[in-house]
Predict the structure.
Amino acid sequence: MRQGHDKKCGQARASRNRAQVPAIWLMTDERIAQADLLHAARRLPRGSAIVLRHYTLDDAARRALFDRLRTIAWRRRCLILLAGDPVQAHAWGADGHHGRTPASARISRAGRQWLHSAPAHDSAELKAAHRAGAAVVLLSPLFATRSHPGGAALGLARFAALARRAPMPAIALGGVRPRHARLVGRLGAAGYAAIDGLIGRG
């Protein structure tokens, strides 16, 4: 009886966690013109998330782009995460960070919700994301993607197995478009993330 009760409680917690995770994530990429990126951000549904990557920009240019996206995100009641260093993300006024680095205690006690997402491509990386304290994992690539040409896709069956094994909500990334929203839900994902799929290209 106790085991069944614990299982039901775990399922209830998982359902609540899924409900708290944005269902649509816009990932930035240097391939995309900044004007197109900003336009896509303005069209996001309320409650979505934006992850600023743009690792190759110098700090000043990256901060300027982040500030522009943050203004759009907050007007649309979306979250904005900075990829990389969680301390820098907090200092810049992000809503969270994306990466495998755990958030510090100072950040987690900062008095506001902090969302930590992490990338994963296989079972080992799912475990690493969990150890790092990630609240959500971006699992990829579901399909072939322009951002990683020639990379092997997980495919439907392997993606579903990993998503259902994940100890946190999984977001489908890699060749995903809005028309795949129902499909990724059936595969066990809490939502989807995209670059070209949300920019409106290809």
In short: The beta strands are 24-27, 49-52, 79-83, 96-98, 115-120, 136-139, 170-173, 191-194. The CA atoms of residues 41 and 72 lie 7 Å apart. The chain is about 45% helix and 15% strand. The first strand starts at residue 24 and ends at 27.
